[in-house]
Amino acid sequence: MADLDALRTRWSHTLHRSRGTHTPAPAPAPDPSPGLSPDPSPYAENLLARWSEPQRRYHTLDHLTAVLDHVDVLEKAADDPDLVRLAAWFHDAVYLPDRSENEERSARLAEHALPEAGLSAAATAEVARLVRLTVTHAPADDDPNGQVLCDADLAILASPADAYAAYTTAVREEYAFVPPDAFREGRAAILRQLLDLPRLFHTPHGTREWEGPARHNLTNELTLLTS
């Protein structure tokens, strides 16, 4: 189960660093004077509530925590790891399994919330760009921030067999409204698309540590779905 207090602390520290204030400031009074940075706590609570919605089975607080942990592993490959962390917080903040515009709506949420939270226009734009990149998980060769976020998001594919099986079960539960035959057909198509990519991971660590296990898991899942 996700540690909510730890997530709140991670959010606060990341937001303060992204504002350029490396030590957390005290929370403002109920009617703060102009110039004080907004208290980060309400933004954290809004995001934590979103990630806790009942329709989620895989895209949960555990997934958010895992992506943030993977960003920590990959942070040296990023130009600005804190903006990548903020993008991780927002990348599935809007999530309805039966909708196709979740990433766009999540990016728009970031564009609305982050300026209110004290981020610059340039930083906000970068976070929103990264969120939109998770539609394709295809960062350019000269996009280290995008490579780190996409690798962190897809790292679940390289999990040990039992964790990968739990992941596939959770995905099926999120799409419980889809009939079994249609789900198998759609899931198999996604797996083939992933396996056809020249590479799943783009950072040196991802390429070295996750590419082989991920392809093994995807191939095994595809075999089970189509046998």
Description:
α1 packs across α4 and α4 crosses α6. About 7% of the residues have low confidence. Helices cover 63% and strands 0% of the residues. It is an all-alpha fold and 227 residues long. The longest helix has 23 residues.
Which percent range fits the helix content?
55-70%
Q: Could you give the count of β-strands?
A: 0
**Which residues sit in consecutive blocks of at least 5 with pLDDT less than 50?**
21-35
H-E order: HHHHHHHHHH
Question: What is the number of helices?
Answer: 10
Sheet of most strands? none
| Structural class assignment | mainly alpha
Average pLDDT level: 92
The termini sit apart by 34 Å
Share of β-strand residues? under 5%
What is the global morphology?
A: globular
Radius of gyration: 18 Å
